Every structure is written in structure tokens, then in C-alpha cells.
Amino acid sequence: MAIEKTYSMIKPDGVRNGHIGEIVNRFERAGLKIERMEMGMVTPEQAAANYQEHEGKPFYDGLISYITSGSVVKMVVSGEGAVAKCRSLMGATNPLEAAPGTIRGDFAVDVNANVIHGSDCLENAEIEIKRFFG
Ligand code: IDP
Ligand code: MG
To answer: Which atom of ligand 1 is nearest to the CA of 117?
Structure first.
């Protein structure tokens, strides 16, 4: 596998509940490197672009207001197969299905607020890194 860069973001509930250190630690322990890291807000425009595929779904409005509700930690994460590795450390989208030992399995309470985002493929990783870091 090749060295990849992915975009990951600790969502507002992850920041509020104090999981930043633990999440960064898990990435680094797994051999991933934090290339860039910045705390800040997601703008409504960035939120709409990032969740375009979910527009029209019943949870869409709640998702946009949640992701813009507080500070997030934006990260560029690199390493061997970083896209898939980051997704496997995150765990399943729905915390009820996320395995213990994954970030969502251990810290997420519900599917609306599931602690962390990670790009789902290399193409989207590139788009999302540009979206959030310019
Ligand atoms: P992912 O974050 O694991 O890639 P996606 O299907 O891309 O999952 O969904 C993006 C985000 O939208 C999820 O992380 C979650 O916050 C929210 N979401 C997805 N499905 C639901 C749902 O059925 N109810 C509420 N929120 C959802
Ligand atoms: Mg997704």
C-alpha cells in the first residue's frame, strides 16, 4: 500500500466531551502521522458541501446544525493506507454497530453525534483537505 493523506475531524461532541487527546493518541499509536491540525468552526458552506450526499434525508438539517454547533479539530492524517486505517479506527457510523475498541464504539452515544469524521476514499480525502485547509 502507498502512503496516503486523509482528512479527519473530531466533531463538536468529541471536543466537548474531552476526547481530543485520546483520538490523536490512537492515530499515532496506529502509525499514522498528524500532518496538520487546527481547531475551529465548520462554516455552513463547508458543512453543506461535506454532507451534500445526505441532502434531503430526514437527518440532514440536524446534521448541519450539529456539525456547526461548536469547535471541531480538523486534521490531515498520513500513513500507509491512511484512508482505510482511519476508517477502521473510527468504527461504524452507527455507534450501536461500532465495535468496542473503535473510537465510535468507545465514545459515541448516538448516530447524530458520533465523535469523528474521516474521508471515505482517496478522492474525497483530497477534496476535503482542500475544503477545510484551502
Ligand atoms: P460516515 O461519517 O461514517 O462516513 P455517512 O453515512 O457518510 O457516515 O454519514 C455522515 C454523517 O451523517 C454520520 O457520521 C452521522 O453523523 C450522520 N448520519 C448518518 N446517518 C445518519 C442517520 O441515520 N441518522 C442521523 N445521522 C446520521
Ligand atoms: Mg461519510
So the answer is: 2
